[in-house]
Specification:
This protein is about 55% helix and about 15% strand. With about 240 residues, it is an alpha+beta fold. Strand 2 and strand 3 form a beta hairpin. Helix 3 packs antiparallel against helix 4 and helix 7 packs across helix 8. The two termini are about 25 Å apart.
Length: about 240
């Protein structure tokens, strides 16, 4: 899901962090299911686009920059645009919306894919211009893509040890943490914990589930170990978090 704020303000929560956006901000949510508590000012105007993961994945872009932007968006989904970049993004989204309505186009899917590809490359350019010092090889981006893919596939439920991921990628734990920190500013353990806590807090909001059931689902050896893990990372016990949510 993406939305471009044209006027007014909007607030929302993404991965337990609250964001407030205003005109000129572009929000890209890698996983819209993690966003909630949307509220908008009376004068809010924006452009919203919800694209299926299958469609976005089908677009073949010859660039490894995607994983860099993806990690950045997982940390903060809000991009602050210059006036020029705002106009470019606004025009692209408006044109995409218009062409989506043409359901009789014989090559509709290919057309929309090409338009979206052009827009994604513009977003890469915007991000790269604001991170000029970041130079990453194709080897590193490939390793990081595979690492994040393991997490998206739920491997963190079965394995939370850095050594497992490093071994799977045929590199050392130190090197995996080093390249993660270079690209995202955070070590590999941060991303393992982030995906884990993201799932734990989702389960805690389902109050019909007991702490024992959640600990078992997440493959913790005991409820006490599960509680210590949560307390250390969000500074609240599972019961305290559940009470507040």
């Amino acid at each position: 899901m993406v939305f471009l704020c044209r006027k007014g303000n909007m607030g929302f929560t993404f991965q337990d962090t609250h964001y407030n956006i205003s005109a000129g901000d572009y929000v890209i949510l890698p996983n819209a299911a993690l966003a909630s508590n949307f509220s908008a000012s009376d004068d809010f105007q924006g452009i919203l686009m919800n694209l299926s993961e299958a469609f976005v994945t089908s677009i073949a872009i010859r660039s490894n920059y995607g994983i860099i932007g993806h990690l950045s968006l997982l940390r903060n989904p809000v991009m602050k645009l210059s006036e020029r970049d705002f106009r470019i993004c606004e025009a692209a989204l408006q044109y995409l919306h218009m062409r989506m309505e043409d359901e009789k186009h014989f090559f509709r899917e290919e057309l929309l894919g090409s338009l979206l590809t052009a827009h994604i490359l513009d977003l890469y350019d915007i991000h790269a211009r604001s991170n000029k010092e970041l130079q990453v090889s194709e080897r590193i981006t490939s390793l990081l893509r595979n690492f994040i893919e393991l997490l998206y596939n739920g491997e963190y439920i079965r394995n939370r040890d850095l050594e497992f991921y490093a071994s799977h990628l045929c590199i050392t734990p130190h090197y995996l943490s080093e390249i993660c920190k270079k690209v995202s500013g955070k070590p590999a353990s941060y991303w393992i914990d982030r995906f884990t806590i993201q799932e734990i807090t989702r389960l805690l909001r389902q109050k019909k589930l007991s702490l024992t059931e959640i600990a078992e689902r997440m493959n913790f050896s005991s409820v006490s170990y599960f509680s210590r893990y949560v307390q250390k990372r969000i500074h609240l016990s599972p019961s305290e978090y559940r009470k507040d949510c």
